[in-house]
Write a structure and sequence with these properties.
This protein is mainly α and 170 residues long. The chain folds into 2 domains: 1-83, Rna Polymerase Sigma Factor, Chain: A, CATH 1.10.1740; 84-170, Winged helix-like DNA-binding domain superfamily/Winged helix DNA-binding domain (Arc Repressor Mutant, subunit A), CATH 1.10.10. Helices cover 77% and strands 0% of the residues. It has helices at residues 5-30, 34-51, 61-80, 86-98, 104-116, 120-130, 136-143, 147-168. The longest helix is centred in the N-terminal third of the chain and has 26 residues, at 5-30. The radius of gyration is 18 Å and the shape is globular. Residues 82-90 and 92-102 have low confidence and may be disordered.
Length: 170
């Protein structure tokens, strides 16, 4: 079957429309700045476009794209580091936990501050499981590692987050 360039472009536009928001939010969990996350998302889709012929179908298309997006975001962050100001994160979490009015937004800020203190792999695994509710098998395919290793990373991440929140509320 011969595909014409117009068909490929229409198909790719459909792919972008379907997955752009999910990919953006995955990138945004790693790259905190909106404009930077937009750039990384665009780079992800350019990479997908150039490498679509390499997609082997061993995982879902979204899992393959998720992996590309995650790698692009991590690469971007490594070039841009240091981005984490632990003292500020602890201060925000402490203030949020000691306020008289404790709302969902402050809880979210405290969780984000705790997640930001995690090593990159634990952060990624926690976000995939907690926010995306991704099954361990799909995560293993996306990250090229075993389910057991992912479960251990998730467990360690949860313990560190719990410890961070307890410490911040003292």
């Amino acid at each position: 079957m011969i595909c014409h360039e117009g068909q490929i472009e229409r198909g790719f536009r459909g792919l972008v429309q379907k997955y752009q928001e999910r990919i953006y939010y995955q990138v945004r969990r790693i790259v905190p700045d909106h404009d930077d996350a937009n750039d990384v998302t665009q780079n992800t889709f350019m990479k997908v476009y150039r490498a679509i012929h390499q997609f082997e179908g061993k995982s879902s298309l979204y899992t393959w794209m998720y992996r590309i997006a995650t790698n692009e975001a991590l690469t971007f962050q490594k070039r841009k580091q240091p981005t984490l100001d632990v003292d500020t994160a602890v201060g925000v979490a402490h203030m949020a936990s000691h306020g008289t009015y404790y709302d969902g937004e402050s809880i979210d800020r405290q969780l984000k501050a705790a997640i930001d203190t995690l090593p990159e792999k634990q952060k990624m695994v926690f976000c995939m499981r907690y926010y995306d509710e991704m099954p361990y098998q799909e995560m293993a395919n996306a990250l090229g590692t075993s389910e057991g290793a992912l479960k251990a990373s998730y467990h360690h991440a949860v313990k560190k987050i719990e410890s961070f929140i307890k410490q911040a509320s003292l």
